[in-house]
Structure formats: structure tokens, C-alpha cells
Amino acid sequence: MKRPAVWLLSFLFFALSCSSSLAQDVAQQDVVRGFFDAQGGAVSSHTNNWAVLVCASRYWFNYRHMANALGMYRTVKRLGIPDSNIILMLADDAACNSRNKFPGCVYANAGRQLDLYGDNIEVDYRGYEVTVENFLRVLTGRMDPSVPRSKRLLTDDKSNIFVYMTGHGGNEFLKFQDNEEISAFDIADAFEQMWQKKRYHEIFFMVDTCQANTMYTKFYSPNILATGSSELRENSYSYENDNDIGVAVIDSYTHHILNFMEGIDKTSQKSIQDLFDTYSYEKIQSHPGVRSDLFRRPLRQTLVTDFFGGVAQAEVLPSLPEVIQRSSDAADTANSVPGAHIIPPVSAYRANDTYTYQATPAKGVDVAVVFARSATPGQSRALITFRAWASIVLTGSLVTWASRTRVK
Amino acid sequence: MDYDVAFPGLIVTRLLLAFAPLPDSLIHDHQLSTPLTSYPRLLEGLYLFRHGVDPYSGGLFRHSPLLLSLFSTALPLNRFTAALIWTASDAAAAWALVHTWRARQQVKGKTSRDSLIAAVYLLNPYILLPSLALSTSSFENTALLLSVMFAVQAQTSLSLLLLAIGTHLALTSWLYLPPLALLCLTTPVSYLASPRPLPFSSNEITRKLGTLATEYSAYLLALAGAATIVAGGVGWLDKTWGAVFTLPDLSPNVGLWWYFFTEMFDHFRPFFLMVFSIHLAVYPIPLVVKFQHDLLYAVYILTGILATFKPYPSIADAGLFVSMSVLFPETYQYLRTPFPTFLIHLHSSLLLPLFHHLWLGSGTGNANFFYASTLVWGIGMGLGVGDAVWAGLLTGIKGRFKNDADEQEWEITQE
Amino acid sequence: MPNRFILKLRVILRGTGGDKNVTRIQRRRKLGNLAWRLYPKLQILLLLVGYAWMLTIPSSLHVQRTYIDENALQPAQVNTYWNWGDVHRADLYLEELEALRDCNASSHEIATFLSTEFRKLGIPAAMQEYTFDTRTGAVHGMNAYAVLSSPRASGTEAIVVSASRRSQTGEPNLRGVATVLSLAAYLKGSSLWAKDLVFVVSDGHLDGMQAWITAYHGVAQSNLVAEPLQLASGVIWTALNIDYPGHSFSHLGVFFEGLNGRLPNQDLINSVQRIAQYTGGVPMLVYDHKGYNELPNQESAFLPRWLPDGLRQTPEAQEYAYRAENVVRHVGFQARGRASGVHGLLHQFRIDAITLFALPAHGPHGFHAIGRVVESTLRTANNLLERLHASFFFYLLVGPTTFIKIGGYLPSALLVSVAMLFGGMGAWAHARWIPPPPANEKQEQERWIARPRPLLPALFVVCSTHALGAALFFVCATSFACAAGVPSSRAPDHLILKTLNLCLASTVVSVTSVLNFSLAATLAIALGFPLSFSTPSSSAIARLGRFTAYASLALGWLFMEDEVTQALLNWELLGVWFAPFVCIMYTPLVLQAGIVCLLSP
């Protein structure tokens, strides 16, 4: 307080430097935003696409659920999302089931025209690994350090994620593996965690089960667009059977979506609203629903490929000769580079996502524990007999003592 | 029939039955034995003990270490000795029951009902079948009946010691302490018809009960020490006594706990286990207060309550209740619903094995069938216990009347 | 007006004022008197309602359509590829089997031929010899069986396809065996079997399969000497038995009752019906009862002649007759604990099994149809991942696509049981209390006179009759000479005996109804009125007469030679409980009622 002027001056200087740096940041952000808002804010500002495809039911008669998930897998892969960006969870192996008349193949239509299993498939979570816990860990990113990269959802705040779930479901729940359930609240909370951790830009949530629309009623995080196959108290029906496989091979809703997707390629400008406009009770046999109140962009301007395809924004930078040479192919800025994998900046990682790859501890550790817990094998017979007789003697002496003292 | 002829005759019949070729499935039957009393588990524990493995390290053996020491030293267990041991146990229990009756009648020698009482215990199918199935609940019953006998003969120490032994075999027996301790201090003669308060002042009662409780605890601790010596550690506490509180084994039995806890989410388990255990503990004191004029009756009612609400009951517990009812013929005329109780017991004792078979044998039914039959069993037990309480109280009310005519003048109703 | 009504209600509920306890006691007394007066009528009412319910079982009140409950089954959703080449192969097998029959080949030769044929197809096969020791002599035979291991799965489960060498009609089941052989050849060609297929050709009718299945499960039987099986497979979940005696068939009849009244899961029958209808193109029947519109005169023979034509020829009556015929046939099997075919021996091992009976006719179907049906059924059973558990185990199949749930037929027996229970409780009350003379009704306080009620004598009679029944059974089972004696009786109070009798009968009917409804219903019909209205009378002649009537009801079955022999044979060979049950439960109960009549009132 002795020199108020000095204090005031230093404060002013401090404020000025802060504001200038802020201004610089703002300016930088404007440039970035300008890049993404190049077409009037209608274009999505995501830079990478991910897909999480979950088939939650097992057993041969749920063949159609696996075909659903595999159909979606094929679609998103065809439209450009690479395997490294797809988490495919299949609860059972329909292709190699001993009842499968066509081993190694999974078909989604009655004439068996297209084998979805094919020879280029990467199933990340298979069989009993498809659990509610693993699904939530995939979404939230909270994983043991030993989980491999292919099983992680390495998204950032500019990732668009397509989450597709199929199986048996009910009012605000979905059945996993016939012995556990995930509720709509769990998924909503997981998405909120993802939002807080800046793990997504936009999510498109699609679910094909009975009473599917109840699954998205509990979301409360922004930028989520959701659609489901049937209303509360309504069943979702299968589409057709194949009479050689002997079971239903695809569900009505997913069949409808896949049909629509057949007309989509990477350049397609069809919007999500176009997809929703094709919904009809006559074709799908149930009432599909849409929830868009949390989604900030207008649906007419949201492209299907924003979620289903690996399409990314690319801007050709001017100036350097080498760059001009290389970018002469990329004349059409609207085209994406297929399989473009944009490595998210390091700052997007949170402290919890540890990427230190340690060697897994020796397997023998667990074994040693067993030895420590087992009873001492070497206890001699004599000791055991002695202990038993000692306790008998003690009990007997108690009895004799008690019968001696006869208290009135 | 003369008691001196009937009693040995009954024992011989029991021995013959025990040595008869019975189906092996009897030993494994869920109605006749529980995870705490089952014979195969006892054999397993003895085998492990003999080979130096701690029998309490697994989850299978839940018998008291005292049984472990008894059967691995003084009484080797095989098919022959098992039949003898279990028959001897039942004979001792019947003998204790007869002597309790004699003490209650204040008769030194024989009475006319002796043979009936022995027959009711030894031929009661609820007692006979678990004994043939070699369930250690026979020992629990024997310990309790011997304890009661010593209590009515005013041999306090033996009575408390046997109760302590009974507690080691089945933890819920500790609930018998209030009525038994008071029974040691009062007379077993029937005062049902003339209720009167305890002839002690409150200071006196506190002091005497305190002494008895201390003695009981001392016995309990000493036996626990003996058990620890045998078991080579305190691991047995959690597996034997702890099982009563934590209900780790949900094998089906005739009780009301197992189905409830199969459906229970883990989150709520501790709370409901506490509620069920505390529920058991609220019964002794009110019973003692209400039947302070005839504490033997309080013990009798308590056996019925425990048979219904214990964590791992079998039909042997119900058998104890039914057998003890012969000690109170003065209450028979006041029983309101003996016949419906009998009918419910008849139906449920036939439906229990039937539905158990349909569920686990032929696979055409499911657990709910068996659960329904346990509920019917519970209703039968509850009806029996409630009726016994009613009859006991009514004996006290109507006992005031001098003659039958006066008695018929009055009608008792319940608000 | 409403006010007065409420006032009246209040008076009824709360009494006319005064002491509430007095009102309570008065009300209780009134109710007690009402129950005392009314219970005989209630008893009769319940009995009548129970029997009326039984009569309405075949009507359309309770029936509903069958449906497939287990989603995994997906019946009739597959294409079948069984074709004329396979039919031709079956014809060739048939020729060889006929040749063997014509030259009177022995069991051994036929079994050798069968196992050789299996081996030629590349399926491991073996034979099993067995001998049953019965009182009528030794029954000897040789089974042949083959195990087609699942190509891609581990073979922990199995499906059995079987044919017995003798059909249930008594003729040789040549075409059934030929179908099994040809099926084995055809099914070997697919690799989509998740379970092992076990083909069994059992000797005789029931005895061969009994020897095979008990040896498979390691269950020993005292009068059976059977070779242990050389080839093993997994746990058997479903089994199909083919019974095809004639040349061609027009319908496929399904037989499903098992030993001691067990039934297979209804989904198996429903699946076969769907498959037969859609894939096989063969109509399915329950047993071999044709529907009324397929009979000559379009009329069921089951309706009694004395019904007027106008009533008899209505569709409702015809349907009722058809269903009643099915119910009666079913009760005939289930009450006596008999298996209606070879499949019935497998139910005790938790195997869902049925017999497909090709109803002999000049009709259109042959190997082609039955092969298609069996192939599709096997594909359906192949889809299963766990045993059938979803559909009903307790049902009355009244038509190929109609059935009655347990709630539709069980209460009838239970009502009769409850009526008997009320009778017992009434007798119990009568034993203790003597009602006051009716002249004193005006008095508030009616003195009911109590009398002592000794229980032991009646208990002794009950125990001794049951012991006598057990002795009777042992005597019958060990020799042909059956002696029926009248137990000596003291003089117990007949009311107490009636109480025990009725309560025991009621319990037996209730408990049996869950296990074997037909037996319970038969018991209810046989015991209901006789036991409820057993009373002694004052004249000794009347008492003797009544007792004779009851004794003949109790022991009259001794004169039905065939039934007795068959029942005892079933007990010996197959472990059917009907014979001991009749001796140890039914006869003593009726005898007790007879003794009630015999005692002095």
C-alpha cells in the first residue's frame, strides 16, 4: 500500500498482456471456426468418424441380430470408416456356429446374395467379452492400461460417433448376453461423461430392439441425435427368413436402413432428414422414432455421411510449391481422402488415459497366491489328533465340572 | 403300555430302522437336512481334517469344530456307528423329554403317559426321518432337550453347559437363554392355569440372571476355545456361526429365508440379513414376560418360532416343537385350530418332496413350486405356534374357573 | 332409501349396539351354526360342481390354440432336401427287411444286418443283447444302434431317432426301420448337426427300448440283464420314434404319454404339428383319432346313440365328442401310468420324446412325406441350445392344435378333493360336538355338549388297512393267488375313522393331481361320492350290505385279469407305479369307508 501507483501499473500491464493473448487465441479460433464454417455453418465441424456397433444377444436364433450389426459394419466400412475407427461387438459367433449350413458366412437376406462376414472383418469384442461393463468402458474410455488399442474408442472432441445397438430390449433396457441388462440411464450417463471429457463432437445413436425408442429418452447431453425402431410397448419384427439357414436373417428396421444406405456412397449429399423421411409403418411394421432436441444442427443440413462415412473436411492450402504439387490430385475439396486418419492432437488426451504400455506382470504371480492361501499340507497326523483330543478333553472336563457343581 | 417295556422296544425299532437298507437319497434330501447339518458335508469335513487340510477353508463344511473333534477321536463314524450314535442321541432326547414331564408332574417314578411321550418323540416322522438321514439336527434337539431337563431338575450348570453345546451346534439356540435361565430359577410345575408374576424382586432377578448369563458365556467361551484348538484358528467362526448371519449357502430348505435371498440384490442383502436376524431376537423377552408363570411353555413356544423363522430350518425343528407339545395336555382343550394345523402339515409335508422332485428331479416344475410349498409349511407352523400361544393364555384365563359350568358361562374372544 | 340401506348394513356389521365383544361372540356363534347346517349341502355342491367341470373339460370353454413358446425352435422354416433318391433307398432297405422277415430271421440276424448296414454308411454301430426275467418267462432280444457324431460340435448333446421292431398295432414295423436306415444315410450328408444323432432300432415293442435306455443312463434293473452299450454319446434331449406299420398312411398320429403319467414338453408336439402341416403336407392327429369330418357319415362314434339326432349332428356336439374321445384315451394311458409308445420310456430321463404313428391307409403318403417331416423336425430340434423348458409340461391335448392349460382341468379334481375335505372336517366336528335339541332355538345360549374324541383306534384302523394293502400288493406281485381279507376291527368311533379317511383321500387326490392329473381325476370320480356318504346304519344287514358294496368297489379290480396282469407286468418291467398305488392307496381308502359303514352308529 505504500506505492499504489506501482501496484496499479503492474496490474494494468498484467491485464493488457492477458487480453492480448486472449485476443490472439480468439483470432486463432476465428480462423479455425472460419475453416469449419466455410459453408455457412451447415457443414459439420467434425474431423474424424468412429462407429460403435453392438450386437448384444447370443444364440443361433438371434442370427438376425448379428446380421444387423454386420450389415451396419459393412455399410460404415464401405462408406469410409476404417477398421481402426470401428468397435464391433458381436456377442456370439453365427458364422462358425455348428448349425450354420454355410460355415463362415453370415447373410442378411433370404437369397444369400451377400456374405457379410467375408474375408476382411475385424471383430473387436467377441462372445463373452460383450458385456455391459465393457461397453460402458469403451464409451467412457476408462480402461485398464493393458487393453489394446484396437479395443479402445480413441475419440476426441471433433469425433462424430455412430453408435448402433441391436438385441432384445424392453422399456428403457437392453438385454446383454441373456444375463444382464443396460438401462437407458446408463447410456445417458456414459454419453454425459463423454461430453464432459470432450470425447465426442456429435453422436448418432441408433437402436433396433423391441421398444427401442425408450432407450434414448434419457439422454441429456448436447449434440446427440437418436433414432429407434419401435415405440414403447411395441415389438420390432424380423424381416425375412432364409429357408436353408432356418432362422430369420435380418430385422425389418435395419433392413430398411441398409436398403437406404445402398443408395448412399461417399459423395452422397443425402441428409439425415431424408433417411427419417423414408420411415413408414408399412415397410418397417413398427413406429420408428427420432429424437433431435439435443442436436444443434438442422437435420436437413446434416449429411448421412457425417455419421456413416469416413468423410472429413479438407482444405487445400495455397502457397508452397511442394504442397501445390502434392495437392494437385485433391482438386475436389469435397472429396475425402479414403481412410484419412487424422491423429488427434495430444492435448485432447486426459490425464486418465494412460498410454504407458507396461509389460504385463508375470503370470506366475497369481499362482503363488494360491500356495500362500492353501492350508499347510505338511501338518502331521499326530498334531491333528492331539488337537482333536485336546478339545475333547477340554469339553469333557467342562461337563464333569458342571455336573459336580449342582447349584439349586 | 409300561414304560420300561415300551422305551427299549422303541429304541430297538429305531435301531432296526436305522440299519434297514434305506435309499441313499435320504441323506441328501433338502427337507431333512440343511447345509449346516448335512451328513455328507460332515464326512467331507472329517476327511479333510484327517488329511491335514483346514476343513473351513472351503465353503462346504459348516459344522461345529466340536463335532469334528468328537467324530475324529472318541466316536469314529461309519455306517454302523452312525446308526448307533443317532439312535442313542434320539433315545437320550426321548429320555430327557420323559424326565421333564415327570418333573413337571412332580412325580419321582413312572407316570402313565411316559410311553406315549417317548413314542411321540421316537416315532414322530419329523424327528425320525432326519435322524435316518443322519442330520446333525438330531444332536441339536438332544442338546436342547437335555438342557431343559437339567433346568427343570435345577441342575443349572449342566443345563447351561448343554445349552452352550447346543449353541455351538446351532447358533440360534442362544435365544433359549432367557427362558431357560429363568426356568433354572423357578419351578417347572404347570402354572399355566394360575398365572402369577415371577417370585423375585427386580434386583434379585438381575443378579441371578447375571450370574447365569456369565456362567453360560464362560461355558461358551471355553467351548469356543476348545473349538479353536481343534480347528487350528478362528476361521471356523465365520463359517459356522457366521453362516447364520450372512447366509452364504442358498440351498433350498423348508425355511422362509432362502428364496427371499435368492431374489435379493446384493445391494440390499446386508440390510435384510440384519432385519431377519434381529427379528428372531425380538421373541424371547416378550415370551418370557408373558409366560413368566410357566417358563417351560415359553421354551416350547420358542422352539416353534425358531422352527419357522430360523435361517436354515429342517423338519427336525418342527419335530421338536410337535414333540414338546405332549408336555402340555392341559392346553389341548383350548386349542382352536388343531385339525386345520394337522391338515396343513399333512398337505405341506407331502407337497414339499413332491414339488422338490418336480423342480429338481423331473424338471417339469420350477423353484416357485417348491417355494409355494415352503410357504404352506410356514403357514402350518405359524398356525400351530399361534394356536399354542392362544391355548396357553386361555388356560390361564379359564383356569380361574372353579367348575365346568362357570367355564361355559364365559366365552373368550380376541379383539 | 339409501340411508335405510346403510343403516341396515351398519346393524349387520356392527351389531345393535351394546358390547362389541358380545356382538362378536354372537356373530361367531351364528356363523358356526350356519356352517354346521350348510356344510353337507356345500359338500354335495362342490362334488357336483367338480364333476360338472370334469364333464365340461372337452367342451370349448377351456380350449385354446397351441403356440410355439420356445423362440429357438423356428419350426417349418427350413427347406428339406429329402428326395426320391432317399425314398428309393428306403424301398431297397424295406425289401431286405421283408426278406429277412419272410425267412423268419432271428433277432440276432436282424440286428446284425442292421448294424452292418449302418457301418456300410460309415456310421459307427453296435448291438446290445438283453434278457428280461418276468413271471411269464424270459423276454430276450437284441437292439441295434448307431451314433452319428456331430461333425462340428463336441457331441455333448444327442437326439435319438428310433423305431421299434414291432409296432404298437402288433405288426412288424418294417417301414419304420427302413425309414430310420434311410434317414441315417441321408443325414450323414449334412454337416450342420450341433448334436449327435443316435439311431436306435429296438427289439420287441417296449422291452428293447427299456433295455437300451436304462443301459444308456446306467440305471440298473433287478430283472434285466443287458449288455452295457459299447458306443456312447452325449446327454439325450429329444427323441423321435417312428411307428409305420402299414404300406402308406394318410395321417401322422402323435402319441406322447410317458410312464407314470409324464408328458413331454408341449413345444415338441406343436413343432411337429407345424412341420407336418407346412413342410410335410401331412395332417396330424392326436393318437389315431380322426376328426369327425373325416369319418364316414361325418359323425363321431363317440356320442351315445340315445342322443336325439338334432343334438348329435351339430358341429358343437361333434367337436365335443372328438375332444372327449381324445381326453378319454389320454386318461386311459395316463391314469394307468402306461406309456403310449416307445417314447414313453424316455421321459423318466428328462428326454422330450414322442412317437409318430403313420396311420395305415391306402392314402397318399409314404416314405417321402415321413422323411421330410422327420428331417425338418430334426433341424428344429437341432436349433435348441438348452432343453425344452418354455412351454407346458402339464396340459391336455384335445386336438392337434388345441389344448387345455392346467388351470382349465385341475380345479375339477381339487373341488372334489375340497368337498371330501369338508366332509372330513364336518365329521370331525360331529365327532366332538352334539348339537343342542332344535326345540331350544329361541335361547341365545345353546349348549353344545362335548364328548371325548379318541383318535388312536381310528388311526390304528387306517394304518392297518394301508399295511394290508401293502401286503396285498406284495402277494399279488409274487404270485397269482391273491387273497383279500377283512381286517379285524375293534369298535372305534366311526366318525373319527370317516374323518381320517376323507382327509387322507382329499390329500391323496390333491397331491396326485399335480403329478398325474388323470389318475387324480379317476380317483376323484371313484372316491368322491362313495367316501363322502359312507354312513353306518342301525340294521346289521344294511351295514353288512354296505360294507360288501364298498369291499367290492375296493377289491373288484382283482377280477379284471388282463388289467391286473398288465399293471403288474408294467411295474416289473418298466417301474410303473399304478399297481402299488391301487393296492396301497386306493383299496385301503375304500376299505376304510366300508369299515365306517360296518361300525355301529
TrEMBL record, chain A:
GO terms classed as biological process: attachment of GPI anchor to protein; GPI anchor biosynthetic process; proteolysis
GO MF term list: GPI-anchor transamidase activity
The keyword Glycosyltransferase is assigned to this record: no
Xref: PROSITE patterns: PROKAR_LIPOPROTEIN
Signal peptide residue numbers: 1-23
Active site: residue positions: 168, 210
Pfam families: Peptidase_C13
A GO CC term assigned to this protein in UniProt: GPI-anchor transamidase complex
Pathway the protein contributes to: Glycolipid biosynthesis; glycosylphosphatidylinositol-anchor biosynthesis
Annotated keywords: GPI-anchor biosynthesis, Signal
Family annotation (Gene3D superfamilies): 3.40.50.1460
PANTHER family (UniProt xref): GPI-ANCHOR TRANSAMIDASE
Membership in a protein family: Belongs to the peptidase C13 family.
Protein name per the record: GPI-anchor transamidase
Automatic annotation (TrEMBL), chain B:
GO CC entries: GPI-anchor transamidase complex
Cleaved signal peptide residues: none
Key word Endoplasmic reticulum present: yes
Keyword Ubl conjugation (UniProt): no
UniProt cross-references to InterPro entries, sorted A to Z: PIG-U
Main location (coarse class): endoplasmic reticulum
Superkingdom of origin organism: Eukaryota
GO process annotations (BP): attachment of GPI anchor to protein; GPI anchor biosynthetic process
Keywords: Endoplasmic reticulum, GPI-anchor biosynthesis, Membrane, Transmembrane, Transmembrane helix
PANTHER family (alphabetical): GPI TRANSAMIDASE COMPONENT PIG-U, PHOSPHATIDYLINOSITOL GLYCAN ANCHOR BIOSYNTHESIS CLASS U PROTEIN
Family: Belongs to the PIGU family.
Protein name, entry field: PIG-U-domain-containing protein
Organism the protein comes from: Phlebiopsis gigantea (strain 11061_1 CR5-6)
Automatic annotation (TrEMBL), chain C:
UniProt record, GO biological process: attachment of GPI anchor to protein
Source organism, top-level taxon: Eukaryota
GO CC annotations on file: GPI-anchor transamidase complex
Transmembrane intervals: 34-54, 409-434, 455-486, 506-529, 541-560, 575-599
InterPro entries in the cross-refs: Gaa1
Keyword 4Fe-4S applies: no
Protein name according to UniProt: Gaa1-domain-containing protein
Organism: Phlebiopsis gigantea (strain 11061_1 CR5-6) (White-rot fungus)
